[in-house]
């Protein structure tokens, strides 16, 4: 392994070129078929294109919720230029490469160029990012805004602080978990104010500016100040009801259960939002220990497996590792697993899953090692505090809802950056402890 990593870092430009070519081959050879959230984003964008509107449009008032408004509007722009799924895949390739570049720049900012090269290698071996280019999900673009915001914050000049804030505001327009980054910035900025350093306030000003501009645009088109997803109460209720298991379970919305709404199609999204919020709040207040007891299961559903987008390589995402294991445990047989697959495809599917999960568990183990060796001086440095704080607070927010493997993707990318010095140390046998964090 040491020789392999050494060879790859020494030929980093050639490896990146291969990675680019591989992505182009993937998007033009593997059939693309959207499901679940991917299909929802695609359909919303197509609806807006057909009505010459931005998202949300007036006809979305009676939807169950408004979802990823900034991302859907970016899709509208892309599909207006070329209305094919390949256009979305090309966008995803660009976002994946942008995220790769941001991983390098952040690792270089925190450590040095050699460690940054190691972070790039670690990122390229993380296959979910490749799988995401075949999907239509928010992970790649959200992470570009997240990493970009942290990077510009660490540059520490006035212009960069504003850009950092704008990117943080944009991340909220993609996924509400972006609020966690704002919370971390508020803590850091508050500490800086005690030192009479007010430049960091520009970060919060930049975020507020983006929210104000984007929310105003949707208000003029839709009649409501919408700048982020409104499905939070729905997700909280899924994890806070008598049928909750810690994972996604839509049983709560069936007739006779707490999430059921009669004449659902006649209710506006904010009427549904308020109802689901009240139902979740009521259940949590009356069953606090039951709610808390679900937290371990939520953690398991987030971290036990890592098939976020891997299955798009085989079967267009219809089967994933969770579904395979669930089918075997439910039926006590492997006969119905991966139905419709050829023997070669089954072997390929299981081989990819096996080797990817070995790598994933290696990353998690290295992060555990990172945590136990993290001292007070290191964690109080802004660079580590922002990255580590986002992971911890983000997970706490995830526990308020339900467990899903997708939730950890932003954390895994930050983890790859944080563990890259230790991997570099192992490969080169050069101690890195004297220069842990530069910022």
Please give a structural write-up.
- With 439 residues, the protein is mainly α.
- The radius of gyration is 22 Å and the shape is globular.
- 67% of the residues lie in helices and 0% in strands.
- The chain contains 20 helices and no strands.
- It has one domain.
Mind summarizing the main beta sheet? none
Task: Give the tally of β-strands.
Answer: 0
The radius of gyration is: 22 Å
Annotation field: number of helices? 20
**Approximate shape:** globular
Number of domains: 1
Which regions contain 5 or more consecutive residues with pLDDT less than 50?
Answer: none
User: Residue-averaged pLDDT, rounded?
Assistant: 90
How much helix is in the residues? 55-70%
Write down the secondary-structure element order: HHHHHHHHHHHHHHHHHHHH
Share of residues in strands: under 5%
What structural class results from the helix and strand content? mainly alpha
Distance between the termini: 30 Å
Summarize it:
By secondary structure, the protein is mainly alpha-helical. The protein is 67% helix and 0% strand.
List the helices and strands and how they pair.
Layout: H1 2-10, H2 12-29, H3 36-50, H4 69-81, H5 85-110, H6 113-125, H7 128-132, H8 139-155, H9 158-174, H10 178-193, H11 201-222, H12 232-238, H13 269-286, H14 288-293, H15 295-303, H16 321-331, H17 343-372, H18 376-379, H19 382-399, H20 409-428
């Amino acid at each position: 392994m040491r020789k392999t990593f050494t060879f790859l870092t020494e030929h980093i430009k050639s490896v990146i070129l291969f990675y680019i070519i591989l992505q182009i081959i993937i998007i033009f050879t593997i059939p693309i078929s959207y499901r679940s959230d991917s299909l929802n984003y695609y359909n919303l964008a197509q609806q807006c294109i057909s009505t010459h509107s931005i998202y949300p449009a007036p006809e979305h008032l009676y939807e169950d919720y408004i979802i990823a408004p900034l991302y859907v509007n970016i899709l509208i722009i892309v599909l207006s230029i070329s209305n094919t799924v390949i256009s979305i895949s090309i966008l995803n390739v660009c976002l994946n490469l942008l995220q790769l570049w941001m991983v390098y720049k952040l690792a270089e900012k925190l450590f040095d160029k050699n460690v940054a090269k190691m972070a790039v290698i670690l990122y390229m071996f993380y296959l979910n990012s490749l799988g995401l280019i075949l999907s239509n999900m928010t992970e790649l673009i959200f992470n570009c805004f997240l990493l970009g915001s942290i990077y510009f914050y660490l540059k520490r000049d006035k212009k960069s602080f504003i850009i950092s804030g704008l990117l943080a505001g944009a991340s909220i327009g993609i996924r509400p978990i972006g609020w966690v980054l704002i919370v971390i910035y508020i803590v850091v900025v508050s500490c800086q104010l005690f030192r009479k350093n007010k430049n960091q306030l520009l970060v919060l000003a930049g975020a507020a500016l983006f929210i104000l501009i984007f929310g105003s645009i949707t208000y003029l088109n839709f009649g409501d100040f919408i700048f982020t997803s409104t499905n939070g109460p729905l997700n909280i209720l899924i994890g806070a009801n008598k049928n909750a298991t810690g994972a996604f379970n839509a049983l709560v919305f069936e007739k006779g259960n707490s999430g059921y709404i009669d004449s659902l199609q006649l209710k506006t999204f904010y009427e549904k939002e308020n109802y689901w919020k009240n139902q979740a709040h009521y259940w949590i207040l009356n069953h606090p220990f039951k709610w808390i007891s679900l937290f371990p299961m939520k953690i398991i559903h987030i971290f036990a497996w890592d098939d976020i987008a891997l299955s798009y390589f085989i079967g267009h995402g219809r089967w994933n590792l969770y579904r395979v294991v669930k089918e075997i445990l439910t039926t006590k047989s492997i006969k119905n697993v991966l139905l419709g697959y050829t023997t070669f495809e089954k072997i390929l599917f299981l081989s990819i899953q096996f080797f990817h999960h070995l790598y994933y568990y290696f990353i998690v183990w290295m992060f555990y090692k990172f945590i136990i060796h993290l001292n007070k001086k290191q964690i109080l440095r802004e660079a580590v505090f922002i990255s580590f704080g986002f992971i911890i607070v983000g997970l706490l927010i995830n526990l308020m809802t339900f467990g899903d493997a997708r939730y950890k993707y932003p954390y895994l990318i930050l983890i790859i950056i944080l563990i890259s010095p230790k991997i570099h140390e192992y490969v080169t046998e050069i101690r890195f402890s004297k220069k842990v964090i530069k910022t």
